[in-house]
Amino acid sequence: MRKPAQRGRPVPGLLLVFAAGKPTFRAFAFEGRAAVLGREGDFAIDDPRLSRRHAEVTMQGERFLVRDLGSRNGSFRDGIQAGEQPGEFHVLRMADSLLVGCGDVRPFSDGAVETADGVVLGPHLRAVFAEIAQAARSAQTLHITGETGSGKELAARAFHQHAGGGPFIAVNCAGVPAALAERLLFGARRGAYSGADADAEGYLQAADGGTLFLDEVAELSLEVQAKLLRVLETREVVALGAQKPLKVRVRVCSATHGDLSRRVSDGRFRQDLYYRLGLPRVELPPLRERREDMPWLIAHALAGTRPALTAHVSFVEAALLRPWPGNVRELLVEVADATRRATGAKRLEAEHLAPRAGLAPEPEAPIDPDRRRAEVERALSQARGNVSEAARLLGLHRNQLRRYLADEAIDAARFRR
Length: 417
Hints:
Elements: E1 13-19, E2 22-29, E3 35-38, E4 43-44, E5 55-60, E6 63-68, E7 75-77, E8 80-81, E9 87-89, E10 91-94, E11 97-102, E12 114-116, E13 119-121, H1 123-138, E14 141-145, H2 152-163, E15 168-172, H3 178-186, H4 203-206, E16 211-215, H5 222-234, E17 236-237, E18 246-247, E19 251-256, H6 260-265, H7 271-277, E20 281-283, H8 294-305, E21 310-311, H9 313-320, H10 327-341, E22 347-348, H11 369-382, H12 387-394, H13 398-408
C-alpha cells in the first residue's frame, strides 16, 4: 500500500477500514510484539460479533501473520479461514470487520476518510488534493498523471475550483480526430474551409476566464502542440481563417496515464511544450494502493443507486482483494452490476460480485501454484464449501474445479463451517 511520504523510520501496523458492517478508518501501530485484536485487547474494535480476544497478529520481517484465538465467528486471511498456526495476510476479516496491513501507519495516525461533493478523500488523495490546491494558487497550468479510471478529471475540477472557477471545458484528446483537432481547439472563421458557413468557437475560446482540461494531451499532433504552445506563451488564439488574434485568459490542466517525459524522449511530444505543461505535476495513486477508500466508495455508490441496499463484509472483503486495473471507474461499474445481480436481496454479498478470470495462466504473468491454491480456497470459503458456487466465483465449470480439488487433495467439506 502506497503511503504519503514521511521521514524517519517506518512504523508498521494495521488499518481498520470496515467495522460492524460499516466503513470506518483507524490506524493501529505495532510496537514490536504480538497484538491481540477483538472487542478487548491491544486493538479494541467496536463490533459485537467479535470475540473478546478474537485473533493475534504478529510480524515476520515485512509480512503480517494472524492466528485465530478460538473465536466464535472465525478469522479469515485473504478469504481463507485462519487456524491456530500463524498465516500471512494482506486483508484480515474478523466477524463484520476488515483490516489491511500497512508498512507505515504514521501518515494515517491522525487521518480520516472524508466525502465532499461526491468525492471520497482518504489520506492518500487528501495529500494529493492539497498539492492541487497549492498549485492552483500559484500556477496557470497543472499536469496530472495516473492510471485510467483513477480520477484525473475530478482532480482537474478541483484545480479549477481552487483557481477561481469560470467555465470548465474538458476535452479527451485521444477522442479528437487529428483532422479536426486544430478547428476544435482554436476555432474557425466562416469560409476558412469548405463547408465553414459560420464562425465556430474553439475549446480555448469557450474556456476563456476558466480552465481547459486536456485529457491524454500526449495524443495531440506535433502541429497542434506548436499552436498550443504559442497560445500559452502569448495568451492569444488565432482561429482558422482569422486575420487577428483573440486574447484569452485560460488555465490549462493536462493529464496523461503514462510518462510524458518519455514521449519527449521519443520525439512524440514537444520539449518546449512539456516545460510549459509538465510542471507543476501531481500523481494520483491507483485504487489498489489506497484500499482504505474502497468501503466508502462502495457505500457512496450504493447511496446514489440503491439506498436500501447495504454491503456485507464478504462483498467489501472481495473488493479489497481485487487489483482493480480500471481503478475507481471499474469499481463503480462493478458495484452497479452487483446491485442488478442482487435483485430482491437486502444486502450485497461476495456472490453478487462478478467473477474474475478463471485459473488459466496469463502468458505474461503465469499464476504460481501457491497463488492458484489460495484463490481456490478463498472461493470455497466464500461459498461455504459449495463447489458449484465456488466454481462460479472463479469463472470455472464445476467439473474443472472438482478435478483440481482431487489433484490437490483439497477437501471442500472443511470450508462448510
